[in-house]
Amino acid sequence: MWLGDTIDQMRCLLVILGLVALARAQGPAGWASLISARADANELRLAGLRTRIDAIADKLSGVGSGVSTDSLAARVRRLTGNGCRDKEFQCGGDAPQCVSNLAVCDNTPDCRNGADEGAVCNVPITQGSSWVGVAYWSSCNSVGTSNVRVIINRVSRSSFFSAFTQMDVTVIHEQNGQYVMENTTGWYGYGARRVFVQPTGGRHIGLSCDFDGVNMRRCEGRLVSDSGATCADIVMARR
Ligand SMILES: *[C@@H]1O[C@H](CO)[C@@H](O)[C@H](O)[C@H]1NC(C)=O
Predict the structure, then answer these.
(1) 181 CA distance to ligand 1 centroid (A)?
(2) Residue among 167, 168, 170, 181 whose CB has most ligand 1 atoms within 8 A, to mutate
(3) Number of structural domains found in the chain
């Protein structure tokens, strides 16, 4: 956890140092340009949010302050990329190779090392499992936090579209202090290790959550509006 935090803190520090240097170099006129630094202030806020999300995530998944080095490595990979394009799976190992997400878990090895038909095919979302999460709203007419619970009622694998597992879920979410329960559907994509839950509720908000491939009892993602805009950051953990 603290590697991610340190990176965020360093970014904050660099932003602050940059602003101070800018103001020094340009004198009073320099302050005018600080107004255009609003984006940096936003960045600081996001960095703070990130830290809080990490803390909550660790609490939810019961790992305390100790996070495995594999999870740290996965987080660094997410920051730096894994060498593959969007919608591609990194086979990993000694000879990195990218294959399409659609080729993952289709019963045909595409990676030279077979990684696309290996552990990645274990679905973290199992029938009957229950997931709790905290959403940090920053948009879609909401700010602040809310609680979300997702219960997996049924999981099924389509034979003709094997790169995904479909699921029927019950979503319980907090709305104006009240809990609202709704049934909807979703899927898990093996290659991206991503869960997507179809939009529910009057506001039509969907959930997208990514697993790091190491700790499969927790995912991080966002709540999205119909137009695909991010409404909230969310972290979920298996109960
Ligand atoms: C949602 O699905 C569950 C499990 O299939 C079912 O027991 C429940 O009655 C459903 N609720 C609603 C509101 O449809």
Answers:
(1) 9
(2) 170
(3) 3
* Better-predicted residue by pLDDT, 100 or 141: 100
- 167: CA distance to ligand 1 center in Å? 13
Question: What's the 136 CA to ligand 1 centre distance in angstroms?
Answer: 27
* pLDDT at residue 46, as a whole number: 56
Task: Write down the H helix ranges in the chain.
Answer: 2-35, 38-60, 69-80
The CATH number linked to 97 is 4.10.400.10
**What pLDDT, on the 0 to 100 scale, is given for residue 37?**
46
Shared domain for 185 and 171, answered yes or no, is yes
Cβ atoms of residues 108 and 99 within 8 Å: no
In this structure, the answer to whether residues 115 and 221 fall within a common structural domain is no
CA–CA distance, 76 with 70 (Å, rounded to integer): 10
pLDDT above 90 coverage of the chain, percent: 47
Q: Is 64 inside any structural domain? A: no
Using the predicted structure, report yes or no on whether residue 76 has a pLDDT greater than 90: no
Higher pLDDT, 191 or 161: 191
Short-list 18, 57, 58, CA closest to 41: 18
* Ligand 1 first shell, C-beta below 6 A: 153, 170, 183
CA of 168 to the centre of ligand 1 (A): 10
Range of 206's domain?
123-238
